[in-house]
Amino acid sequence: MASEEQRILEEVDKKNRAEIERLKGVHVIKTLKQYARGYWKHAILAWVLCVVEVGCEIAIPFLAQFIINYINMMEGTVTFTDPMSTNLALTSSIMATLAIVSATCGIVAGFAAAKASAGFGKNLRQAMFYKIQTFSFANIDKFSTASLVTRLTTDVTNVQFAVQMILRLVVRAPLMIIFAFSMAVSISWQLSLVFVAVVPLLAFVLFFIAIKVHPTFVKVFNAYDDLNASVEENLNGIRVVKSFGREAFETEKFGHVSYFIYKNFVHAEKILAFNDPSMHLAVYSCMIVIAFFGARMIVSTGNAQTGFTEGNLTSLISYIMQIMMSLMMISMGFVMIIISRNSAERISEVLIEEPSLKNKENPIMEVPNGQVDFEDVGFRYNAKSEKEVLENINVHIHSGSVVGIIGGTGSSKSSFVNLIARLYDVSRGAVKVGGNDVRDYDLHALRDSVAVVLQKNVLFSGTVRSNLLWGNKDATDEEIKHAAKLACADEFIEKMPKGYDSPIEQGGTNVSGGQRQRLCIARALLKSPKILILDDSTSAVDTHTDALIRASFKTEIPNVTKFIVSQRVLSIKDADLILVFDKGQIVGMGKNDELIKTCPIYKELHETQLGGGDFDE
């Protein structure tokens, strides 16, 4: 009884999984088809031309049987004026015309299908890229950078090729099978019955391939993510790899992922290898059976007027070839769909992903000032995490204040400042800027008023000027130079060969770490923010330059609220308010002299770094 109950439960579970997969496929098609907009006319043109092409190809074997019959009925010498010769010439001319029309329609239909599929791929890439721009850090963390790159490239290419093949097959192959089979039945319904036996066998083979191959391609495309991640990590850290002599290790790591992809592709191709032999076996079996029984029918009943003739057999074999070739095309398309199915699902996942950070209705469009309040804030990156990254954070910061933030590695300093620009949302409590909850602001308006300079902030390929204009695309030369001066970047920019028009390589690899940080600070200042956050962004700058930057901030932008996250006490000791973090909590709050007396962690840092003194360099 228990085994029977178990069997029933397994059957129900199997049906449920099948229904989930079916609904998943329907949802993917519904999601992706809207991105064919602008190219439907090319798809429809391809289909119309395919109909004409099929009609011409169906008519040619039908006319061929009359030519063969005409030739068989000719006796002796035939003149050009003979009616039989005239019919032969006319029929041949019609066939030639049909062949030319069919070829022309096929070529133009191919061009139209290529344009429609390429346009579909372009729309998909654009839609995915635009969607990614709306993602929060949490969304990007969910997919990973490498996975998003794979989906934008390899997956879109797979789907594009599949669509191009489908556009040709969706009309051509079914119509060819229907019309060719109808013509075959009209010639000899007995011989046409061979298809009734062959088609179910082919359908079984295709179904078997689909069931076995799809899970393998799921593994393969997930492995592509790991492969891209390995390449990205290696190239970003190539200087570290070479300095530690770890080329062999990185090569071996890459080789493991590459071999996994190879092994799974071989496994999938072994199963797919059944497709072509099965189709060819079906084609030649049909031809042999029809040729054998057709020849017997010709011998027994062959007569140009009443029986089964050589012309009938020739046409029937042509229709067999058309039917079987169409079935082969369907099987090839089916294989491409199997390969691209997982790619389509992965693309759909990105397109239907909802950004975790959204504007509320009628958001506030302007930040009044740089006041910042944390009210009983708790934060965790993952909602399922038991422990909060930030716990019970309560702090009030006046507009224009200089706030120093210090603490050990992993003490959640960056998490704290990330909440101000709403790069993440709090798990509980509220973060307020200018007296309003950050969730009430328009995201663009908020981030336009909060400039964040990260320790690992990057520069983009272009020039010094083009990178600084990220802060304000309408900035004048005077504003650019002023921002560079505040960030102490003017001194090295003016020494570069072309000054502000000097080239910057991707990631800013042709400038030093300190120069890169100062350029990023200048870029942030061009936003004219109400709040400026420097998240350990002067770590690569010498202490003297760091002091100059802080001094320029104090005199030039006194009304901007400044958050300085640093590992160096020297960088934050003169702040109006210093926050000391430890294990996600503020364990000390006050000015430098006060914290030396009340906060053991800060006192230890101060004594370790400054030896108990109070000096600047």
Describe this structure in words.
It is a single chain. The protein is an alpha/beta fold and 617 residues long. The protein has 21 helices and twelve strands. The chain has a six-stranded mixed β-sheet. A four-stranded antiparallel β-sheet has the order 2-1-4-5, with no helix packed on it. Helix 3 packs antiparallel against helix 5 (145-187) and helix 7 (194-236) packs antiparallel against helix 10. The longest helix is centred in the N-terminal third of the chain and has 52 residues, at 83-134. It starts with a helix and ends in a 7-residue tail after the last helix. Mean pLDDT is 81; it is low at 1-9, 15-20 and 76-80.
Furnish the topology, listing elements before pairings.
Elements: H1 2-33, H2 40-73, H3 83-134, H4 137-143, H5 145-187, H6 189-192, H7 194-236, H8 238-243, H9 247-272, H10 275-301, H11 310-352, E1 372-379, E2 390-397, E3 402-407, H12 413-418, E4 428-433, E5 436-437, H13 443-449, E6 450-454, E7 462-463, H14 464-468, H15 477-486, H16 490-493, E8 503-504, H17 513-525, E9 531-535, H18 543-556, E10 561-565, H19 569-572, E11 577-582, E12 585-590, H20 592-598, H21 600-610
Helix pairs in contact: 1-11, 2-3, 2-5, 2-11, 3-5, 5-7, 5-11, 7-9, 7-10, 7-11, 10-11, 15-17, 20-21
Counted by DSSP, the helix tally is 21
Q: Unreliable stretches, pLDDT < 50, 5 or more residues?
A: 1-9, 15-20, 76-80
Compute the CA-based radius of gyration: 36 Å
> What is the number of beta strands?
12
User: How would a crystallographer describe the biggest sheet?
Assistant: 6 strands, mixed
Structure class: alpha/beta
Query: What portion of residues belong to β-strands?
Result: 5-15%
Average pLDDT, all residues: 81
How are the strands of the largest sheet arranged? 6-9-10-3-11-12
Q: Which overall shape is indicated by the principal axes computed on the Cα atoms?
A: elongated
Beginning-to-end CA distance, first to last residue: 85 Å
As a percent range, the share of helical residues equals 55-70%
